[in-house]
Structure formats: structure tokens, C-alpha cells
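Bug #77: duplicate submission created two jobs. Keeping one. Sequence:
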Amino acid sequence: MARIIIVDDEVCCRRVLAAQLASLGHTVVAIGSSGMDAIKALFLNKNIDLVISDYSMGAGLNGAELSDCINHAWPGLHFLLVSGNPPENFSGHVLEKPISQKILAETIDAILTRTKKTA
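Kept job's structure:
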């Protein structure tokens, strides 16, 4: 199963997502409320498979900007953007909130499986 970092400025969203991921057998390595929290967690933790981030997080980096930073600093690291109002111009993987556990599981599996086949 995957080692995942969660980033969302809403406590309830972080908790729900963490519970969903745990019940799917994934390991939530770190939970943060900002893009900078995610970047710090990436420096402190090895072998992260996926970062799941909200799009709009108040001050600081938004989810799309965080994705750009991660793509430059950690090429090949997977990123999933989640949002109640997803941006139209984001070219990566996006799920619209609220997210069912079934859709979350299928999306994570597709993201991780696709890479394993091409690696």
C-alpha cells in the first residue's frame, strides 16, 4: 500500500481523508494544513508515494502551485488534487469533493498502477 501525505486547511477534511486512506490500508505519513507543511514533510520523510492536496488553502501556496513545486523538486512523485471547486486548467489528477471511498481507492490505484507499468 502507499505512503501518503495529506494537505488540507480544513481539519475535518484532513480527518475524513486520513480515515478513508487508513481503512484502505494506506499509511498516512504526514498531515499538514499548507503547502509549506507538505514540503517540510517531504524533506523529513523518505519513500513517499503520493501527496494529496486541497486546491484552495488560504495564504501561501495553492494546490496547483504545490504540485508544480513537487514536480520540480521530486520528479516522479505522484500528486492528487482534491477540491470542492477544482480549477479547469490543472493538468494533473483531480477529484472533486466530497470524495467517496470507492472513487478514492480507484483513483489512487490507477495513479500508482500506471506508474509501475511504465517504470
